[in-house]
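FAQ: What does the model actually see?

It sees only this:
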Amino acid sequence: DDLIELLKFDKKHVRASLENLRKDKLIKSIVKGEKEELGPGGGALKFNHYFISYKVFIDVVKYKLDRMRKKIDQDDQLQQNCQFHLCKSCDLRFSDLDVKDLID
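And it is asked to produce this:
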């Protein structure tokens, strides 16, 4: 509730964003009961408390950056290994040697 007031966002939007961050393991949550505030039926209300575990956060970010780097390297490798060129107007494929002859 404090975060909703600080950000001035809709409660549904903030909770959805927090849940996405929790699924991505960027934040953690703990459910705690508050005895001072009684809920319906006289029981203690339960609240989710969110926090950042910095060691886990750093590991997750490093892992995601490494996956992105590997994906970019794979895409780059595929483009370099491409042995043909595609003509957009006639959909014919030409090898590197054919393209050289066509340009001259």
